Amino acid sequence: MSTDPNKPKAVLHAPEQAIDTYLAALLSEVEEYQETTQPILAPPVDETPKLAKVVEIRQGVHTEAPVQAPPAIEIVPSVDTAVETPESLSSEPVEIIPEWGRSSFQCLPFKVRGMNLVVPLTALSSITEWDQDLTQIPGQPDWYMGVFVHRDQRVVVIDTAQLIMPERMEKVSDKRRRGSHVLIIGDGRWGLACDSLQSPLVLEKESVRWRRGEGCRSWMAGTVIDQLSVLLNVDALLDMVGHK
């Protein structure tokens, strides 16, 4: 019995060829399956039997795994949350900058009872030395220091520190030491007592940390960062003392 010398080689390569053929068949079936699952393109007529198998498989998935529907419902709350985020950010308070503070402006720093305050020059009617005693009127608030005459007009002198921070200040004594100057504000009928004056400053809008939102401390327009001083809102001070 004779043997062919080339036959063993053919036997050795047969499994590899079978595997390659099997893999090629699987790949071709996968490609055909992907083509049949396109949502819009219609399958060719000659692949109708394969389409029928795919339909059976898909029907089996729907009947055996109906729990695929709930994940689609869980996505909806995440979308609503993303939409609500910009609305919450838009409600943040913004800086309240008065008209005189939108460009460079002049102001006058002064000190009263240890507090460093700054007043815009546009809010001052005049500045006068405190060279006369005040006339006391009984039954007035603690911030009411007394009255003196300036340019033939009665001026009520205000203790600014007592007015804006009464909880941190002791009650003013009737014999309190006279200050250096009085800053006349409003229509000339009110004056801010000050113990000492400093040189005028020119501030930029960026030099002030402006007040944000409406609420308490309306008398504070902002804080001067470099000076560590409170920038006063004179209009709010006049409202606090009942100016009309």
How is this structure best described in words?
The chain is α+β, with helices and mostly antiparallel strands and 244 residues long. Helix content is 33%, strand content 25%. It has five helices and twelve strands. The strands form two sheets. Strands 1, 2, 8, 9, 10, 11 and 12 form a seven-stranded mixed sheet that branches. Strands 3-6-7-5-4 form a five-stranded mixed sheet.
Would you kindly provide a brief summary of this structure?
Helix content is 33%, strand content 25%. The protein is α+β, with helices and mostly antiparallel strands.
Q: How is the biggest beta sheet arranged?
A: 7 strands, mixed
What's the count of strands? 12
> Which term fits the overall shape?
globular
Q: Terminal Cα separation, in Å?
A: 132 Å
H/E element order: HHHEEEEEHEEEEEEEH
Features:
seven-stranded mixed beta sheet, five-stranded mixed beta sheet, 244 residues, alpha+beta
Chart the SSEs and their pairings:
Layout (H helix, E strand, L loop, with lengths): L6 H30 L11 H17 L4 H22 L14 E8 L2 E6 L3 E6 L14 E7 L2 E6 L1 H5 L16 E5 L4 E5 L1 E2 L3 E3 L4 E3 L9 E5 L4 E4 L1 H7 L4
Parallel strand pairs: 2-12, 5-7
Antiparallel strand pairs: 1-2, 1-8, 1-9, 3-6, 4-5, 6-7, 10-11, 11-12
